[in-house]
Amino acid sequence: MLRLAAGTAVWEHRGLPPVSLRWMLITDPDGKFAAQALRSTHPDATPLQSVEWFVQRWQREVTFAEARAHLGIATQRQWSDLAILRTTPVLVGRFALGTLFAQYLLQGQNLPVRPAAW
Fold first, then answer.
1. How far is residue 86's CA from residue 93's CA, in Å, rounded to a whole number?
2. Which of 6, 16, 36, 101 could form a disulfide with 24 if both were Cys (CB 3.0 to 4.6 A apart)?
3. Does 76 lie in the same domain as 52?
4. Whole-angstrom distance between the N-terminal and C-terminal Cα of the chain?
5. Residue 96: inside a domain
6. Which domain holds residue 37?
7. Is residue 24 part of a domain?
8. DSSP assignment of 34-66, as one string?
9. How many CB atoms lie within 10 A of CB 24?
């Protein structure tokens, strides 16, 4: 079980109009998880909606981080914009297929981890 505290604040930045900001603090009374602070520029959204959006977004962020780490996405520095537009979807698709193949082959078993060669 988690605890959620929420409120509304004003975010001001020099030269820009103030923005209403919803903040949330998620804590675990059992101490298993570190406290997490979230912010949202959707003040009409309920705190629960904002947390759900965060969880959905987190899954995408992990996928992008894995794709950058293992497929080299976002490291195509010398390439033209058109080449990047052609290759990035293929790299993401290859990552997705590899994930699906691994899930199928493992059939619910843990992924075997081999010691590093060095």
1. 12
2. 6
3. no
4. 42
5. yes
6. 1-56
7. yes
8. --EEEEES-TTS-HHHHHHHHHHHHHHHHHHHH
9. 18
Structural domain count of the chain: 2
Give dist(CA 67, CA 83) in Å, integer. 17
**Are the CB atoms for 19 and 43 separated by under 8 Å?**
no
Q: Which residue has the tokens 């977004």?
A: 57
What pLDDT tens digit does each residue of the chain (118 aa) get?
Answer: 789 999 888 888 888 898 888 899 999 999 898 999 988 888 788 888 888 888 888 888 887 787 777 766 766 665 677 877 777 788 778 878 888 888 888 887 877 777 765 5
Residue carrying structure tokens 């949330």: 24
Structural domain contains residue 42: yes
| Distance from C-alpha of 10 to C-alpha of 57, rounded to nearest angstrom | 24
Distance CA 26, CA 40 (A): 14
> Both tokens of residue 67?
């794709």
DSSP state of 34: -
Q: How many CA atoms lie within 13 A of 9 on its CB side?
A: 9
Nearest to 54 by CA among 117, 1, 114, 6: 6
